[in-house]
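Every protein is a chain of amino acids, and every chain bends into a shape of its own. Below is the pair of lines this work produces for a single protein:
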Amino acid sequence: MLKITHIKAGYDQRLVLDNVSLDLDPGQLVALIGPNGAGKSTLIRAISGLLPLHQGVIEVDGKDVHSLNENQRAQKIAVVPQARNLPPAFTAREVVALGRTPYLNWLGLLSDSDEKIIDQAMAQTDTLEFSSRLVNELSGGEQQRLLLARALVQQTPYLLLDEPTSHLDLQFQISLMERVHRLAHPTNGDSPRAVLAAVHDLNLALEFADRVALLVKGQVLICGEPAEVLKPEILSSIYNVPLALLRDPNNGQVAILPKVHH
């Protein structure tokens, strides 16, 4: 379990997260939602150990995340960041291979097993076809898929994603979220992972999340099953736009849409 207990964190004297508590269990995909500036990216940075805490503790499998060295953290928690900043002179495959760094021997050489893991991750993210191309030749969406592949090769029990669908077209948004959902709910005998994904699209949270955490002004306002959290009466005031929950009479599928007045 990854356990976040009463943390406060921010930048210099500016407090962004105020008394946040949240548990991440293997076998669950938790969607982190909230308006811009709520602190979603900051929370992911704090969980990954990159941001010091003002207060509280973050434990991964019973150990304080800030007591682990960089390699130990990288073997427990993988992050798909929002900002790309990928090395432009690297090929796509070299970028993905960086995810194996925590497991390399002192010579820093990839083994046959490492190469196989890289192949599998790139196949899963549809990035094999451009594995030899330079990163600066790739689109934003292709780079986003590379970052997911890099996280997958870390083979961590905990996966954090910061707006993973922001540069993807609709087809790849759905396929990426399906892939992430399968990481939490594997059907091939793999160990289930705990996934926390910060998302803007409320319908992706509704469709794929096991739990939804609503972050508002640096605090978790509510966390529960999608049906508990994704209610128009809760979200309309938070997002400052009237929302409605609509159900397709043909298949029963539900969607959250803004109310439009003509």
Observations:
- The chain is about 30% helix and 30% strand.
- The CA atoms of residues 177 and 204 lie 8 Å apart.
- The radius of gyration is 19 Å.
- The mean pLDDT is 93.
